[in-house]
Amino acid sequence: MIELQNDTLRFFFPDLHPDAHCTVSFQRTLRIPDDDETWPLPPGLGHFPIVHVDDFAATLPPKWKEQGGVAFPMYQSEAMWIAFSGDDYPFAVKIAAGKIDAVTGKPWSADLGTRIRRNTRSETSEILSTTTQHSSEKDSFPHSFPTR
């Protein structure tokens, strides 16, 4: 269940565990110049006001209405950082902008990619064990491993 309360997104998963909840808020700050210089962190200026897209459906592009969700206004001179909070229950979060994964730069996918990492880790383990078994014969160890 997701709720919007006091400009904060609150995620609750009571069927999973009573402590499975976290919050996400979007904090307003100033942009720093993109000029390869090192700048001190700009000040925090409070949170952005978050609204339901459905509340403004009449004035927004049709695609926004189809997608749904929440939005917040932002000036070009502003920047944003994301504040996560929760108790002792662990969460994994993916961030995207415009259907692009903000970390990898690849197109958005809903899964966490753990299956791919698990398969790659398994293949690497097989390569290591095979190499270790044959290392006495070859007296060599590979310097790189195949990746996907």
Task: Report what the structure shows.
With 148 residues, the chain is of the alpha+beta class. It folds into two domains: 2-109, no CATH class; 113-148. The chain has two helices and nine strands. The protein has helices at 62-67, 114-138, and strands spanning 2-5, 8-12, 21-30, 44-47, 51-52, 70-71, 78-86, 96-97, 100-101. Strands 1, 2, 3, 4 and 7 form a five-stranded antiparallel beta sheet that branches. A two-stranded antiparallel sheet has the order 5-6. A two-stranded antiparallel ribbon has the order 8-9. A hairpin with a 2-residue loop joins strand 1 and strand 2 (8-12). The two termini are 35 Å apart.
Please tag this protein with its features:
2 domains, disordered C terminus, alpha+beta, two-stranded antiparallel ribbon, 9 strands, about 150 residues, 2 helices
In DSSP terms (H or I, runs of 4 or more residues), the helix count works out at 2
Mind summarizing the main beta sheet? Answer: 5 strands, antiparallel
β-strand percent reads 25-35%
**Mean of pLDDT:** 78
Present the secondary structure layout.
Layout: E1 2-5, E2 8-12, E3 21-30, E4 44-47, E5 51-52, H1 62-67, E6 70-71, E7 78-86, E8 96-97, E9 100-101, H2 114-138
Antiparallel strand pairs: 1-2, 2-3, 3-4, 3-7, 5-6, 8-9
